[in-house]
Amino acid sequence: MKARALLLSLLALAGLLTCDLHAEEEARILFIGNSYTNGMRGTFTEMTRQLKGDKVKLEFITKGGWTLRKHFEQAATIAKIKDGKWTHVVLQEQSQAPALGGQYEAAFHNAVKELANVIKASGAEPVLYMTWGRRDGDKRNARVIPTFEKMQNRLTAAYKKAANDNGCTLVPVGEVWAAVRKADPTLGKALYNRDGSHPAAKGAFLISSTFAKVLFETPTKEIGLRKGVTDEEATAILKAVDEICK
C-alpha cells in the first residue's frame, strides 16, 4: 500500500510539473501551409527564440503547392489541430488561388470556413497569413492577374473577406510587401527569390517581423535579428510593418 501511495504521489507531482511547464508558455502556434510558410520557418523560429526564449512553441505542417482544402482533407492534420492545445493556428493558402476568382477563390473561402470552425472548437485562434503577389505578376494567368499590383489587390481583398467572415486574425504580409515595393522598388524586388515568387532572406525577414508585430505585439524597435538584411533595409521594412500593422 505504501508503495502504491508513493507511486500515486509521484504521478501527481509529475502532473503538477507538466501543468507548470505549460503555464510558462505564452503561446503554442501551429502553421499550416506550403512552401511560402516553409520559406519563413527558419527566420521566424530564430526571431521567436530571440524575442520569447522558450515561451513560445512553434510547429509547422508544410507541403509544397498544397491548398488549404488539401490540408483539410488530411485526418492527421485535423487531429493535430484538435489535440495540440494550440493558442493559434495559422493558415496559408496556395499562392495563386485566392487571386484567381471563380471556383479557386470559392474553394479558398470554403476551406478557411471549415478549418476555422475546427480551430475555434479546439479552443485556438484561427490566423490567416496573407501572401504577396508575384514579382512580375502571374504570366500563366495573365488575363486575371498580369501584374504584381493586380495580383496583390485580389489577394488582399480575398484574405480580408475570409478573415472578416470567419473571425480570423489577419497577418497582412502581402500589404507590407506592397508598401515596401512602393517605397523602394529595388528593395521590393529583392524580397523575392530568383523565381520571382518565393521569399528571399529579405522577404523572410519581412514576413517574420510582420508575424512578430501581430501575434506577439512586439514593437519593431525590439526586433534585433537582422538576418539577411542591412540596417538600412531593416529600417525600411520595419517602417512598412508599423504603417500597415497599426
Map the helices and strands:
Elements: H1 2-24, E1 27-33, H2 35-52, E2 56-62, H3 68-72, H4 75-83, E3 88-91, H5 97-100, H6 102-121, E4 125-129, H7 148-166, E5 169-171, H8 173-183, H9 185-190, H10 201-215, H11 231-244
Parallel strand pairs: 1-2, 1-3, 3-4, 4-5
Provide a descriptive summary of the structure in words.
This protein has 246 residues and is an alpha/beta fold. It has one domain: SGNH hydrolase (Rossmann fold, 3-Layer(aba) Sandwich), CATH 3.40.50.1110. Helix content is 59%, strand content 11%. It is built from 11 helices and 5 strands; from the N terminus they run αβαβααβααβαβαααα. The chain has a 5-stranded parallel β-sheet, sandwiched between helices. Helix 6 runs parallel beside helix 7, helix 8 packs across helix 11 and helix 10 crosses helix 11. The N terminus is likely disordered.
Number of helices, where a helix is a run of at least 4 consecutive DSSP H or I residues: 11
Cα-based radius of gyration, to the nearest Å: 20 Å
Amount of helix: 55-70%
Find the count of extended strands (DSSP E, 2+ residues): 5
Summed up, the domain count is 1
* CATH architecture type: 3-Layer(aba) Sandwich
Can you give the mean pLDDT? 92
Envelope shape: globular
**Spatial gap, N to C terminus:** 62 Å
Regions with little confidence, pLDDT below 50 for 5+ residues? 1-23
Run of helices and strands: HEHEHHEHHEHEHHHH
Q: Would you state the CATH class?
A: Alpha Beta
Query: Going by CATH, what is the homologous superfamily?
Result: SGNH hydrolase
The biggest beta sheet is recorded as: 5 strands, parallel
Give the spatial strand order of the biggest sheet. Answer: 2-1-3-4-5
Structural class based on helices, strands and sheet pairing = alpha/beta
Strand content: 5-15%
CATH fold-type name: Rossmann fold
